[in-house]
Amino acid sequence: MFSFFKKNNTSVTLLPVTVDMHSHILPGIDDGSPDVETSVMLVKGLYDLGIRKCIATPHIIGDLYRNNDETIEAALSKLQKACDEAAIPMKLSAAAEYMLDDYFMELLQQQKPLRTLHKNILLTEIPYTAEPVNLQEIVFNIITSGYQPVLAHPERYFYFHQNYKGYKKLKELGFLLQVNLLSLTGYYGKEVARAARYLLDEGLVDLAGTDLHHSRHLNTFRAQKHLALLCKYIRNGKLLNSTLQD
Ligand SMILES: [Fe+2]
Question: How far apart are the CA of 72 and the centre of ligand 1, in A?
Fold first, then answer.
């Protein structure tokens, strides 16, 4: 990497995607930004790193964050207003990150529209402790309800680290896979970084996101060596990020 800088004598200042499809920047509704001032700071930080469209994805978890259209739309309009006042020209929208728990199955059965990233593309996550035993059935229900599920940060689920074949199984079930850009920097540890690189090397990654929660995440992205690393690993042409726009 050092020789890369010496040879080219250039510095990378931008993230390798312009559409961020995974973040917790809406104020006060999950474990991300606590207030609108912090949210504006995070949006400005992403804008300075080259992000031009930011799809906020607050958690919806039955036991923790029962966000709904009302809570999400209210937080989005607060943030939009504050960004307008601060003259930050970021395109903002809001979907959600759905934990595939019993509450999610209730929502799916109610057949009210779920909050998608774009068209029918639905961001989901599963527990860090163990793979849901009925994952196949859940994915089947999602797809037959008309949604295309995306699994957030597969590299962060420790139970796949001893079973990389599990990643191919996820694709066979019908998931698109979304890697966290932070994972590649080593932010979550070596095993997570290794799994993220494996997923990219095997061509299993469809989307990349920041999963931005707070300024420590932002500062990690700002490190020159991390931006250079991300630009090296992410072949933007193969990702679907840029298609998530109207
Ligand atoms: Fe997330």
Answer: 15
